[in-house]
Amino acid sequence: MKIENPEELRKIANKIRIHIIDQVYEAQSGHPGGSLSCADIMAVLYFNQMNIHEKEPEAPLRDRFVLSKGHCSPALYGTLVERGFLEEEQLKTFRKIDSNLQGHPDKNKVAGVDMTTGSLGQGLSVANGMALNSKLEHDGYRVYCLLGDGEIEEGQVWEAAMTAHKYKLDNLCAIVDYNHLQIDGNIEKVKALDNLEGKWKSFGFHVLTVDGHDIQSLIDAFTTAKLTKEKPTVIIAKTVKGKGVSFMENKPEWHGKAPNKEEYEKAIKELKGGLEEC
Amino acid sequence: MLEKKIATRESYGEALASLGEKRKDIVVLDADLSSATKTNIFAEKFPERFFDMGIAEQDMLGTAAGFATCGKIPFASTFAVFAAGRAYDQIRNSICYPNLNVKICATHYGVNIGEDGATHQMLEDIGMMRVLPNMTVLSPSDDTQTKWMIEEICKKKGPVYVRLARMETPVIYDNNQTFQIGKTVQIGEGTGATIIATGVTVAEAIKAKEQLAEEGILVRVLDMYSLKPVDKEAIIRCAKETKRIITVEDHQIVGGLGSIVCEVLAEEYPCKVERMGINDCFGKSGKPEELMHAFKIDAEAIYQKIRE
After folding, report:
1. C-beta atoms of B98 and A115 within 8 A
2. Could you give all domains of chain A from N- to C-terminal order, each with its CATH number?
C-alpha cells in the first residue's frame, strides 16, 4: 500500500487525529498534544514511506519504526488501526486494565509495534541497533525514529547521535517533532535547544527542516533521506502541539490531559469538519 | 581445586571468541573497555560483529536491545558499576520489560577489583539486577563454570546478567562437573556448617573448609552461581542438615546473596543466617587480597567465623 496523493494522506492524518481524541477521551487520560502534532508525520511514514505488511507484522526485511516519544502512543495506535494492523474496536480499551494498548507502547502486546518505549531518550539507541543489524546482514531495511523536542534534552540521545554518525547509518532517519512545548512550558525557557539544526549537523547528521504539517514537504524530506548516503538524516519537523484542535493548539496544558465531554465534542466536530474539507 | 588461576573475565573473553565461530547470531558491544572486559579477543577474531560504543553505556545497552529485536544475541560488556548502575533504566525499560535477549556480561565487581577504589567497586548489582522481572542473574566462580555459562546463556531466551571478576581465582572444577541454571554445586558433606558463596568467595570458602578439616571441623560449601533463579531446595536441605548457615559475598549483605538466602529460609525453613560481606559502606583502594581481608570476605575471615 503506497498512497502518493497528499490530499488522501491529509485525510488519513485527520482520521488518526480523531482516533487520538477518541482514545484519550475514552480513557480520560493520555497525551493528546504531542500525539496531534505528529499525526501528519505518522500518516506519511505508514502510508507513503515504510515498507511494512499488515499481514506479516514481523517480516524480517520490513522497515522499522521506533516511537521514542512513547507517550504519544495514541498516534501510533491510531495509525496502526488505519493501516490494518489493529482492530478499531481495541482503541476503546486504551489505558484500561488488561488492555493490550498500554499507556506507553508494548512491542509484545501489539502487532506492528517494533519497540517498547516510554522512558524518554532511549529510542534512538534502539533504532541504531536495528539499523546496524540491517547493515551487518545487508538486509536493506530502513529504520525510523520519532523523537520529541523535549525528549532530546536527554543525554543518551546525543550518545546515540554519535553512534549513528560513527557507523554512517544512512539507513536511519530520525524525526524531531519540534512543537516547542514540554510539560513545564516553552522548550526555550525550560532548557533552550537554541540552534537545533547546528546541533544535529555538528553530530554528523544530514539535517532537513520542514513544516511538519505539510504532507508534500514531508514526503520530499523522507525521499531525500533515502537518497542520502554515508550519513544518517534527521528531519526537524516544525509542528504545532495540539494541531487540528483549536483550543489545544500551542497550549502546554494539553500535553497530558483528557478533554471533558464538551471539549471532546468540540474537538471531534473540528476534526470532522477538517475531514470534509479534504 | 587446582593451582592454576584465571580471572572469570578472561574465561568470558575466551568463551565468547570460541563461540563466535559456531554462533553467527552473536554480536558483541563494549564501552571502551574491551581490553579489560576481554571482549577484545572476540573483536580481533570477528571485527565485523564487534561494536565499540565508546564511553556511552546507556547507548550501548539501547543498541544491544535494538539488535535483539532483530534476532541477534547481543553480549554487552563494561564494568559492573556502569552497566547495572549507570544504565539501570535502559536495562529496566528497554531490555527487561520487553524481555529482549540481551546478555549483559559485567566485569570488575566488588572490592576484589582493588586499587581503583570505591567508585569502581560495584557492590549493589546483584540486588539491582535480581529485582527486575524477566532477568536471570548469574555469578560464576571459576574458569570451567564461566565457559559453560557463556555457552548456556545463548540457549536461554531473555535477558541475563553475568557478574565477572577482575581478580584471578583458582580453577575449581574439572570438565566432568555439570552445572545447570537454577542449581548449585555442593562441595563436601560436612554438617558443622554450610558456607554459601558466589563468585570470588567460593574459592575462599573452599580454602577455609580445607583448613577447618585439618582441625577436624567438617563443613560444606555451596557454590551459588545461579542467583536468580535460585536453588531453594539446596538451601533448605543444607539448613536442615548442617548446624550453621553462613553466606559470604563480595557485595553488600543487603540485596545480594545473604538476602537471597534469608528470603528463602524465612519463608521455607526459618533459622539463623550469618551474613558475611560488605556491610553498608563503600569500598576503598588497596590490593585485592588486602581488601578481601579488610572487608572480612577471605578464607581467613571465614575460618575465624566458623571457629567462633
Report:
1. yes
2. 6-277 (3.40.50.970)
Query: Options 3.40.50.970, 3.40.1400.10, 3.40.630.10, 3.20.20.80; which CATH number does B5-170 get?
Result: 3.40.50.970
Q: Residue type at A205?
A: F
pLDDT at A277: 57
State the Cα–Cα distance between residues A114 and A127, nearest whole angstrom: 10
CA distance A18 to B270: 59
CA–CA dist B14, B38 (Å, integer): 8
Q: Residue A193: pLDDT above 70?
A: yes
Q: pLDDT-derived band of residue A276, with 50, 70 and 90 as boundaries?
A: low
User: Any residues with CB less than 8 A from the CB of B215 and at least 6 apart, and which?
Assistant: none
Report ipTM (2 d.p.): 0.97
What pairing do the DSSP bridges indicate for beta strands B50-52 and B73-79?
Answer: unpaired
Distance from CA of A247 to the nearest CA of B (A): 34
In B, which residues are within 8 Å of A115 by CB distance? 65-66, 69, 94, 98
Residue stretches of chain B with pLDDT short of 50: none
Enumerate the domain spans of chain B.
5-170, 185-307
A124-138: average pLDDT: 98
If DSSP states are collapsed to H, E and C, what string results for B59-111? HHHHHHHHHHHCCCEEEEEEEHHHHHHHCHHHHHHHHHCCCCCCEEEEECECH
A124: chain B residues, CB-CB within 8 Å: 62
The one catalytic residue in B14, B57, B124, B204 is B57
**pLDDT of amino acid B3:** 83
pTM: 0.97
CATH number attached to the domain at B185-307:
3.40.50.920
CA-to-CA distance for A257 and A30, rounded, in angstroms?
Answer: 6
Chain A residues 125-154 with a CB less than 8 Å from chain B:
125-134, 136
Amino acid at A137: E
Task: Return the number of CB contacts < 8 Å for A and B.
Answer: 109
Give the N- to C-terminal CA distance of chain B in Å, as an integer.
Answer: 26
A residues 41..70 contacting B (CB < 8 A)? 60, 64
How far is A220 from A132, CA to CA, in rounded Å?
25
List the grid coordinates of A168.
554512517
Q: Give A178→chain B minimum CA distance, Å.
A: 23
Q: Considering CB atoms only, which of A114, A126, A136 is closest to B48? A: A136
Instruction: For the beta carbon of residue A117, count every other beta carbon within 10 angstroms.
Output: 30
Q: Cβ separation of B69 and A125 shorter than 8 Å?
A: no
Tell me how many helices (H) and strands (E) chain A has.
Answer: 10, 7
The whole-number pLDDT of residue B73 equals 98
A162: chain B residues, CB-CB within 8 Å:
54, 56, 59
Flag whether residue A124 sits within 8 Å of chain B, measured between CB atoms: yes
Give A274's pLDDT tier (boundaries 50, 70, 90). Answer: confident
Q: Does residue B57 have an active-site annotation?
A: yes
